[in-house]
Design a protein that fits this description.
11 helices, 281 residues, binds adenosine monophosphate, alpha/beta, three-stranded antiparallel beta sheet, 9 strands
Length: 281
């Protein structure tokens, strides 16, 4: 794996790949890599000649400075995982490299896909930070394909809209959520949970699985599914920020499921904010 920290080094490193018409896959992350990230990398390695892993804790998408400061940073382990998983280029720029002094552009989507749920909870700045940094990373790397986890379902939807609206010409590849054997969705934030909080955090995936089982046995009204899920959350002593059935495309709440839908949940457990979802198809 080649470690690059500047845009100039990145360009120089990718120049040969471009000349050789080799395909380039990009896996954007904020580091603190786990098996979920690894699955994205493996998918990228399977489909591309060259895989760029970006590791950048993007300050502009954090609504809470304390959350940004507490975000885990595990460089040595990240590099080892990247190497083992077959990453070609490890791109870890400093904040100044991405946002030099005088930086003045924001890429902002409008409408329901950014207004609700994560957009509502974390504020409009969150998705503006995401869309701006993703646009920049895609411009810097110019990959053929970019890999995003279904774990962040709304983000995936937003990135697809961004790519369509701006004709960015990159293939967005979704990767299914990777979970612990007991169901907990892998997250860089899980390491901050105490043993007791980790047990409570299981309420999120269990709530989703229970509601999904109800969906599979024929329940189609969102209210019924949310009621079933809310009970499981309550049993775990977890108060949801939101728990809702949304349309998979518009990310707007739906009353009845008759197309692709997603059951989404967010909650703060012991000071750590967690999100999870399951597709209902
Ligand atoms: P992050 O470093 O948390 O910004 O995540 C980087 C990418 O990894 C995003 O596209 C996430 O959706 C994805 N990701 C994070 N956790 C998981 C997981 N448990 N399963 C699959 N993808 C994930």
């Amino acid at each position: 794996v080649i470690v690059v920290r500047t845009l100039a080094e990145l360009r120089a490193t990718l120049a040969a790949a471009r000349l050789g018409r080799r395909s380039v896959g990009l896996v954007p992350t904020m580091g603190a890599l786990h098996t979920g990230h690894r699955r994205l990398i493996e998918q990228a390695v399977a489909q591309n000649d060259v895989v760029v892993l970006s590791v950048f804790v993007n300050p502009t998408q954090f609504d809470d400075p304390a959350d940004l400061a507490a975000y885990p940073r595990t460089q040595e382990a990240d590099l080892a995982l990247a190497e083992a998983a077959g990453v070609s280029v490890y791109f870890a720029p400093a904040p100044d490299e991405v946002y030099p002094p005088g930086f003045r552009t924001t890429v902002a989507l409008r409408g329901p896909i950014v207004d609700g749920f994560e957009g509502a909870q974390r504020g409009a700045g969150h998705f503006n930070g995401v869309t701006t940094v993703v646009t920049k990373l895609l411009s810097m790397v110019r990959p053929d394909r970019a890999y995003f986890g279904e774990k962040d379902a709304q983000q995936l939807r937003v990135v697809r809209a961004l790519v369509a609206d701006l004709n960015l010409g990159v293939d967005i590849v979704p990767v299914a959520t990777v979970r612990e054997p007991d169901g907990l969705a892998l997250s860089s934030r899980n390491g901050r949970l105490t043993v007791a909080d980790r047990e409570r955090a299981l309420g999120l995936s269990r709530c989703l699985f229970t509601a999904r089982a109800a969906f599979e046995s024929g329940v189609r009204d969102s209210e019924g599914l949310v009621r079933v899920g809310a009970r499981v959350l309550a049993e775990h002593g977890v108060e949801p920020e939101y728990l809702a059935v949304v349309d998979g495309s518009s990310f707007e709440p739906v009353d009845r499921i008759d197309g692709e839908a997603v059951l989404v949940v967010a909650a703060t457990v012991g000071g750590t904010r967690l999100i999870d979802n399951v597709p209902l198809r």
